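Sequence, please.
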């Protein structure tokens, strides 16, 4: 099912979106979909990383951020 969402963007972001779409030979909608998927994936990965670090700490394993994959930059 297709849903339409309307968003407001500042001019500079709209220009970047349009430029990226042209470079990728894609629609702006496709670029936004990919960006949202990447955003939500990164959030899920960060939540899993935090959960893994907490579980390791409960078991007495001390890890730093460099030792756990998925750290957001």
């Amino acid at each position: 099912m297709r849903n339409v969402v309307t968003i407001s963007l500042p001019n500079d972001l709209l220009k970047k979106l349009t430029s990226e779409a042209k470079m990728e030979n894609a629609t702006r909608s496709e670029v936004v979909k990919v960006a949202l998927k990447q955003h939500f994936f990164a959030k899920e990965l960060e939540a899993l990383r935090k959960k893994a670090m907490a579980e390791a700490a409960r078991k007495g394993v001390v890890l730093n951020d460099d030792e756990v994959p998925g750290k957001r930059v």
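Helices lie at 11-24, 28-58.
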